[in-house]
Write a structure and sequence with these properties.
The protein is of the alpha+beta class. The protein has a single domain, classed as OB fold (Dihydrolipoamide Acetyltransferase, E2P). It is 23% helix and 42% strand. The protein has one helix spanning 59-78, and strands at residues 2-11, 14-19, 24-29, 42-48, 51-57. A 5-stranded antiparallel beta sheet has the order 3-2-1-4-5. The longest helix has 20 residues, at 59-78. It is elongated, with a radius of gyration of 17 Å. The termini are far apart. The mean pLDDT is 88.
């Protein structure tokens, strides 16, 4: 089974992936990640039963997510508050 996963965090050498629409957590050793994977990266993970057999970076999804986040940040910064600071 192939699924998309988001690399949520890396702590103490353990990577936590959020998998599927329910964001199920899956932990693995950080050294099993693709070399270019960073927190926030999207991955394609392949399982046989409960065992992960392949993991690769989903470049298109990662770039798209970063663009959407940057666009949202820009729209928040552009909008002017109707309240004035004293």
């Amino acid at each position: 089974m192939r699924v998309k996963a988001n690399l949520d965090r890396i702590e103490d050498g353990i990577a936590t992936l959020l998998i599927g629409k329910k964001d199920d957590e899956y932990n693995l050793a950080a050294d099993q990640l693709p070399n270019d994977a960073l927190e926030g990266s999207w991955l394609i993970v392949e399982f046989e039963g409960n065992k992960m057999i392949n993991i690769q970076l989903d470049v298109d999804e990662t770039v798209g997510a970063k663009q959407r986040i940057n666009e949202k940040k820009e729209s928040l910064n552009v909008s002017k508050s109707k309240y004035k600071r004293n």
